[in-house]
Design a protein that fits this description.
Elements lengths: L15 E6 L5 H14 L4 E6 L12 H6 L2 E4 L16 H6 L4 E7 L2 H8 L10 E7 L9 H15 L5 E4 L9 H18 L2 E8 L3 H8 L3 E4 L10
Parallel strand pairs: 1-4, 1-5, 2-3, 2-4, 5-6, 6-7, 7-8
Helix pairs in contact: 4-5, 5-6, 6-7
Amino acid sequence: MAKTLPKALGENGKRISIFLGTLGSGKTAIALNTAWQTAAGGEESILVDLDVINPYFRSRMLQNEFATYGVKVICPPAEIARSDLPALPAAIRGALVSRVRVCMDVGGDSIGATVLGCYRPYLPEGEYRLFLVVNSRRPFTQDTSGIVSAVKEIEIAAGLRIDCLVNNTNLGLETDIGSIKEGLEIVRKAAEQLGVSVAFSAVTEQLSKSAADVLGGEVFSLKEFLTPPWMA
């Protein structure tokens, strides 16, 4: 059963939510949960897989499963679905200019951001919001300066401005509330320097009950859809 979306994705959200993040940030998990919960709430939902970087965690792998939830997944053709080729279907442009709720899963380095920039002319003014998903336990985003640098690199490559940061600090199975809280403080400091907000913290379903009181902000409870191949 779907939980409630954070306000930045639900009642105060935009029609198009775009998630970027460096490798290991967890942006795909957040994108999947956003699209799934949107559909569970009775709205038409489209998930666009623009990640041309990560071969292991891609939204396109769940295309058939998500169709049963009422989520349409737009991704490269099946014959190259596991490749890194930026073969991006024209259906993406149609989704962006429609009236349907769209969630975009985008690679967060300069290459991924450049791919997103190709669709900048089709992003309706005032109808989209860019979220940078941050895992402060990953290289390059372990401190405030790293996060700020990542944001600037993405903004230059995409020609678009990051609107919000998302705290998704985790250590996989070893994640605890303490590490998430430490990550949140780092993300908050980066957001202050950048002049943006921290939209929410993402946590696993197992930690969600205790997280809200400890973190003191909005929490997005994530259902696990993708399992690393080395843990399958």
